[in-house]
Amino acid sequence: MIHEPRFKYLPDPEQQMVRAFFGDKPGFFVDVGANHPTQESQSHHLEQRGWDGLLIEPEPACAAALRKARKAQVIERACSSPVNAGKTMTLHVAGPGAEYSTLEAEPIALGARQRDTVSVNVDTLDNILHTHRLGKTIDLLSLDVEGHELDVLQGVDLRIWQPRLVLLEDHVTSLAKHRRMRALGYRLLRRTGLNSWYIPQDIPVTMSLRARLEMLRKYALGLPFRKLRYARP
């Protein structure tokens, strides 16, 4: 049984929490939207501790940087829904500051502005995993594709792959991603920053009252305000 700790807003607590979740034994990650080799990476700190995995990144410059700096296999591909599999699509690259790229017409990150576009090859996450996972158990699936997450989730059946933990970026402007995760057999464990933590529904979990109230605030009470905040003019 997992006992959910009280929410703590500490400087950069997420990596420590991920390591505490998995313990000391190395595992296998799949990092979708890997982006920069180290900055804000969900997998670099695990790779340094002996983990192996797949780095899935469509933007050519980022993919090249990942090949140069990281040990894990780099898949230069964009993930999307089955209807887009096999297509060449436009990737929108935005800045300034931290670089964002997305198949969405506009980046979801507030303040980001498109500065470039590039054509990229697209496939489903299911197809990529069938080709490159090589029979390994997936411990961590990180999914951060700047607003295109729901399309990616439509192209993967987590009931087949059964990752132990899914870190899903979700600005929670709707409940569509949460409902999709529930349909795929996963339950929400906690929130850290913009990431929702999902674990298989058959794993028992005990959440504190404070954690339950935080989920209610994020996924119900605050939803109308976030819809207004992220609404495009």
Commentary on this structure:
The protein is an alpha/beta fold and 233 residues long. It has a single domain, classed as Rossmann fold (3-Layer(aba) Sandwich), CATH 3.40.50. The protein is built from nine helices and 13 strands. The chain has helices spanning 14-22, 44-47, 60-69, 125-132, 149-154, 158-161, 176-183, 209-221, 223-229; strands at 2-3, 28-32, 52-56, 73-75, 78-79, 88-95, 100-102, 113-123, 140-143, 165-169, 186-192, 195-200, 205-206. The strands form three sheets. A seven-stranded mixed β-sheet has the order 4-3-2-9-10-12-11, sandwiched between helices.
How many domains make up the 3D coordinates? 1
Q: Which sheet architecture does the biggest sheet show? A: 7 strands, mixed
Strand order of the largest sheet: 4-3-2-9-10-12-11
What is the level-2 CATH architecture name? Answer: 3-Layer(aba) Sandwich
Order of helices and strands: EHEHEHEEEEEHEHHEHEEEHH
The helicity comes to 25-40%
Termini separation comes to: 46 Å
Question: Average pLDDT across residues?
Answer: 86
The CATH H-level superfamily is: Vaccinia Virus protein VP39
Number of strands: 13
Structural class: alpha/beta
- Report the β-strand fraction as a percent range: 25-35%
Uncertain runs are 1-11
Number of helices: 9
Compute the CA-based radius of gyration: 17 Å
Shape: globular
Please name the CATH topology. Rossmann fold
The top-level CATH class is Alpha Beta
